[in-house]
Amino acid sequence: MRAPDEPSASGELPPPPGGTLPGRAWRLRAGHRRFLEDELVRLLGFSGQPRHPRGGFGWLDAGGEVDPTQPVHTWITARMTHVHALATLHGRPGHAALVDHGVDALTGPLQTPRGWVDALPVSGEPSPRHQAYTHAFVVLAAASATAAARPGASALLDRALEVLQERFLDAHGRVIDARDADDTPEPYRGANASMHVVEATLAAGDVTGDDRWHAAALTIATHLIDEVTRAHGWRLVEHFDATWSPLLEHNRDAPDHPFQPYGTTIGHWFEWARLLLHLEASVAEPPPWLLEAAHALLHASLTVGWAADGAPGFVYTLDWQDRPVVANRLHWVVAEAIAATAAYHQRTGDPAADAWYRHLWEHAATHFLDHTRGSWHHELDPALQVATGTWSGKPDLYHAVQATLLPRLELSPALAAQLRGG
To answer: Exposed, middle or buried, 408 (CB in 10 Å: 0-12/13-18/19+)?
Structure first.
């Protein structure tokens, strides 16, 4: 691994390709806010029947139908429960029953005495292995459903936080990725599960008013970002062993893995940058490194991530010399880039962040929004044609829906808590 050029940790972001539009920030313009609301409504109408007959929410195909070849994934059920809770809190009738459907599944067939299964398989029994990634989304769903005052949600949140604390946070407050059938921690540690635990604990802290969960999020972020990512030139290290030593060659032979791809994942740089700004706005005495790191991650992702292979868009992954590994463009990456540039502009007023925000929405609207079948194309190839190398169909709405809401809200509290307060 070479020592990459380290981006400045202060100052303005690099400008986007092409010119910029003068005037008021896009996220504050009435016309753009109407666009965001219209896109939210369009996304929420993508699937007429997202319920899976076995409980929870199904993996959606390209037309919005439940894919019968896919298991009932707990992370999809949790993310869709979260989405429908946000819609309910936003004042949209008809979504409360979907929240209740999700809560019923998370307190029923998807739950075990030790926590939550990863999925109900198409045939056979669920794996006894439990993952922090899955549990993080259960916490997020429960927090949002609690904010929406849905039956059973508060008890679900209490139990989900209890399991998270007891089984997935170690003595140092760092995330244990998975436990095997004997409840033994597996050796792999990763930034992805840790990132979503940060998201979930911020939401739980805001909904419950318990600042312990904000502190838990800060502990995780301090280690992974202020210590490890800073030491690697603001290139996010994704994979670690049980001692948190980086595994830079992890999954070299499976570079397009949907959850643990080789190299570094540009979309996670954006997500972490945004979460650091939410964290800064959430804690009573935020350390200065939070803003510094958010800037550095956003600067790096825009500088080396956009058009890394010479074509428009963000590649999925880079190697440790900033070279593309998987060049396909995933919808969640541009959705997170939209949310991160909006958050950074809100925090700093940097005009380049607003220019990027405009540029990214133009890119998404031109290439990712599917106006024929609904939702967003989840994956495009480098020529910006629909592809299915990493994902099939359009499994859920989580990233795209949040891209329509986050630019309209404050940095704190979390989405559900903020919508609850009007």
So the answer is: middle
At 275, which amino acid appears?
Answer: L
Does the annotation count 399 as an active-site position?
yes
CA atoms within 13 A on the CB side of 264: 26
CA distances from 421 to 49, 119, 171 (A): 29, 34, 35
Confidence at residue 155, expressed as pLDDT on a 0 to 100 scale: 98
CATH number at residue 280: 1.50.10.10
Q: Which of 130, 135, 268, 299 is catalytic?
A: 268
Q: What is the pLDDT of residue 3?
A: 40
What is the number of structural domains in the chain? 1
Report pLDDT digits (tens) over 348-406.
999 999 999 999 999 999 999 999 999 999 999 999 999 988 889 999 999 999 999 99
Residue 322: which region, alpha, beta or left (left: phi > 0; alpha: psi -120 to 50)?
left
Q: How far apart are CA 113 and CA 128, in angstroms?
A: 11
Which of 135, 250, 367, 399 is the catalytic position? 399
> Is residue 84 flagged as an active site residue?
no
Domain boundaries, position 335 = 26-420
Contact predicate 368/331, CB 8 Å: yes
Tell me the one-letter amino acid at 289.
W
